[in-house]
Model the fold of this input.
Amino acid sequence: MRVRDFLNLTGSSLIAHRMRSFLTALGIAVGIAAVVLLTSIGEGVHQFVLSEFTQFGTTLVGINPGKATTAGTSMGMFGTERPLTIEDAQALKRLPFARAVVPFVQGNAEVEAGNRRRRTTVYGAGPDMPDAFSMKVKSGRFLPEDDPTAPRAFAVLGSKLRQELFAGSSPLGQRITISGNRYRVIGVMESKGTLLGFDLDDTVYIPAARALNLFNNDTLFEIDVMYDEDTPVEKVVKGIKDTLKARHGRDDVTITTQQQMLDVLGSVLDILTFAVAAIGGISLLVGAIGIVTIMTIAINERTNEIGLLRALGAREGQVLRLFLGEAIVLAAVGGLSGLALGVGMATLLHAALPALPVQVPVTYVVLAEAVAVAIGLVSGVFPAYRAAKMDPVEALRAE
Amino acid sequence: MIELAGIHRDFQVGDQTVHALDDVSLIIGDGEYLSIMGPSGSGKSTLLNLIGLLDRPSSGRYHLNGQDVTSLSDIAQAEVRNREIGFVFQMFHLIPRLTAAENVELPLIILGLSPEQRQPKVAAALEELHMTDRSHHKPEQLSGGQRQRVAIARAIVTEPKVLLADEPTGNLDHNSGKAVIAILETLNQRGITLIMVTHDTEMGQRARRRLRMVDGRISNEQNGAA
Amino acid sequence: MALHNIDVLRFSWRALRGFPSRTLLMLIAMAIGVSAVVLLTSLGEGARRYVTGEFASLGTNLVIVFPGRSETAGINPSTMMGETPRDLTLEDAQALLRDRSIRRIAPINVGSAVVSRQNRSREVVILGSNHDLLTIRHWQVGQGRFLPQADLDRASPVAVIGSKIRDELFAAKRALGEWIRIGDRRFRVIGVMGSEGRSIGVDVQESIIIPVASAQQLFNTASLFRILVEAKNRDAIETAKQFVIALLQERHQGERDVTVITQDAVLQTFDRILGALTYAVGGIAAISLAVAGILIMNVMLVAVSQRTAEIGLLKALGAAPQQILLLILTEAVMLSAIGATAGLLLGQVGSYFIRVSFPLLPAYAPAWASTAALTVALITGLVFSLLPARRAARLDPVLALSRR
Done:
């Protein structure tokens, strides 16, 4: 039998029962649309989170005091008898691959300017910070290259804090007080938004050594090192480890590479997307049962036709393929309309809620259609096999 | 030439064995006109199905044109059915969603001919049955007699040597029935072997050779004009 | 003229029995949908119960005090982790005990230090606290005793160690009464924690607990990481919270520089998030119920056209259109009811196996999910069979009988 004749015969029977074919394909379409829509949302969230993270660059390594516990986090930043110091940061800066090194202290204090006051996050940082985290200064300049152990009392404001304290007037050159200590504002940062609950705009940046003093602390929270893209990350980690080991006499820090974090985050989000797709896939399973049911009914109804085809000399294989073809076409058409439906809804969703990131992953789209065809194949096999194995004499005689 | 020798066909009904055909031997020459009559359950349809290779005997030998067809594979039997044998049924068995022409085309599609090869054959078969002007009608738009003519066109479109008709007039009124028989006889006169199962004595008597079956056996045979 | 209900049911049942394979397939479809909803919501519910259980094990009637406060939001990572110029001190903690609404407090300091004994050493999480921590957290001491009842500012050199630390430093030897070195100080082991006591973030079995004043010396700090406050009872939680805020504001020269949260608030947040997740997952699974509904509609349509003659006969025998409608609807609803019940059982069995395989996860399907799944299944069955039923009811008896 020729392919075209095969398709004509298959098509004619599907068209003859329009309503039935439509409803069967609709079952598959709903399932595929659900999977496509859900994975689109999943993929959108994935992309969104990754871009949030990579906005700081991917060649970053974070060093925290203390060894990580099995719970995953280092408790060293809360207190340790082996502090991470500004001198450590200076030593790391001498490493050949270190493009930027930022000592980092974080805290919470009340900031005063004139008669306005606001409780906010205080970051103790170094002059390399804009470089390392690809942050931009909106006006003025960032903290200058002072002696890191005795820097001048300069402060740089986040955009939101600037609004709160200096609405309408220029903050540059103004004096502010942070917990009783006076600083001069030398710059304002561009808005960065929030990242996982950290409001990066409601902040003030001061030199790390002054922050340590302010908070009466002797260890840095973290040192961030941005390395040359050409240097392999293993070499960076080893260089840092060796330097600090030489200075501390033991290996007592936790090193986290940005890449590691991205990998972990990526795989977690992948699993989530997959899980959601699988739950949506339950509808596909039900749709597949729909195909089995309708094909079973069709074969019962068309028993005479099967007998006739056999009497006219059709082989078992030809009968099998005819009915299998019907199931596959049903599923494939359902799959295609489900794709259109899913992509359409994803686009609508994106238009209605721009905040919700939606991204239709091409691989999932192709996969979804392949799955639909496979569903047709699998759910068609049993009824089609029954049709092929029918005794032609019995089939012709059936009412 | 159809040669049946010692054919048995047993069916299992419940825990009983029914002997639908009980030692049937029969030789039918090319171009013969044979009718098989007998009461319900006498085995006449079973015999027709066996000749048409829709069924296999429990024992015995069946040679078609000198070839032993009992031992052929299912696929090879299907091919023989497609090329050598045409079927006409009581219920017509037209596919309702296909037009008359498409129904006639079906055996050629199964054979694997191209549309260009099929087209003239379909047209010729329909012409032969005077159904050319109905070729684009669906079966439900045709009368019973017209449906059976389409079915006969389908049976002869592959130019088979044998035409098997199972109660071809059973679902038709008297006049349509006579017309259909006339068509089948015309085909027989052109050399096709015509084997017809019927319980209508008037139709059956028209055949030159008449078999009567009772309980799975050929109880008597008549030759010549009745 | 009215059909008896029992006759309607019997008629529908016979109709379904007449096509066993198609009936079975539709039942499976419905059952998959319902059991998916039941199973997935039971997973969500399990996760919710697990997390709330974990939080409850942190203690009861808890109010937690953090140093630092940001105006952006109530609680965010920067207040949880940051430091403040003004310390939350031991004196602050001590002062909290003045109010009647507060039963006990536990100041906490956290850090990491190298702990060694003879030639074994490792980095360990050090918790500085007091005697009451044990009661507040509902922990158990495995051997020996917990930190003694003493003034908060007394830095006695005693330590209670987690069982994993005991295994690593002492192996099979006796730990009680032995000396270990934490940083540059010596401590005597007075107790080993029982196997109970996991809490979010910190594994007690891998920690060492020392008096809070000792921890402050060790880490050279005067400030506390946080203070756990246990209110007298549930009703006193809010009073206690207000008292803590007012007291600390007064002690800190009128500046409100601490964040005070109640355990209830945190619990409710998690409860809400996981509850919403359960709804979402259940909803996604319910899409399959809609697909099953489409299938029922499809098959009922087929059934009506196949049984045209039968319906014509019923009409000829005097059946009213409403009765035909009733018959077809009964058939569909019966189908969804049986399928949904099977799905419900399947889902319950599935969640039972989840509970057996993962004893940590109390995966019980919430009642609302089972009820909703069942209701949705019945309604889909009914709604999707309306079209075929109406078609059957409107059949012209003469045409219906004459068609073969």
Q: What stands out?
A: DSSP finds 13 helices and twelve strands in chain C. Residues 263-306 of chain C form the longest helix (44 residues). Chains C and B do not touch (no CB pair under 8 Å). The CA atoms of residues 131 and 147 of chain C lie 5 Å apart.
